[in-house]
Design goal:
Radius of gyration: 17 Å
Number of helices: 5
Structural class: alpha+beta
Strand content: 5-15%
Order of helices and strands: HEEEHHHHE
Helix content: 25-40%
Mean pLDDT: 76
Shape: elongated
Largest sheet: 4 strands, mixed
Number of strands: 4
Length: about 150
């Protein structure tokens, strides 16, 4: 039985594999960025379903910074702790605390608890800039011929 989260992630890019940006890819990596970090892998023209628990890939919980930021899964340094919408919101709140003149304060009516992904992305559209520092390693998990990052609405 396939893991439900894996099925959701696979469905998000399976159409691209059949008729879109990933069509004909022999080796590919698809990454979805949202509340977390999801995705899937194509190896030798087949979708990788994983082994024991059939969860495919847990890209978001791949450690990219040893001893890094705390992740919601309990581990430290997971990709999701740096690249998800949840991480972006956390980084925006941190930046706002250091910039009392940020337009984001007006957008959230002065209440940090009201800062969500919509406010952050709306702020980016009107020219609010966030300085986000990441410290990513240069080691690769594998070498796909194609990496697909869909742009969602």
């Amino acid at each position: 039985m396939l893991n439900r989260k894996f099925i959701k992630d696979i469905n998000e890019f399976y159409g691209e594999y059949q008729a879109g940006a990933l069509q004909g890819a022999n080796h590919a990596l698809a990454i979805t960025l949202g509340t977390g970090v999801g995705g899937g892998v194509i190896i030798d023209g087949h979708i990788f379903a994983g082994g024991i628990n059939c969860s495919g890939t847990e890209l978001g919980h791949t450690v990219i910074v040893s001893g890094g930021r705390q992740c919601t899964c309990g581990r430290r340094g997971c990709w999701e702790a740096y690249a998800s919408a949840t991480a972006l919101i956390r980084q925006a709140k941190r930046a706002m605390k250091n910039d009392e003149g940020s337009k984001l304060w007006l957008m959230c009516e002065g209440d940090l608890e009201k800062v969500d992904g919509k406010i952050v992305f709306d702020g980016l559209e009107i020219g609010v800039y966030l300085a986000v520092k990441t410290e990513l390693g240069s080691d690769y998990l594998f070498d796909p011929s194609l990496v697909f990052l869909p742009y969602g609405s």
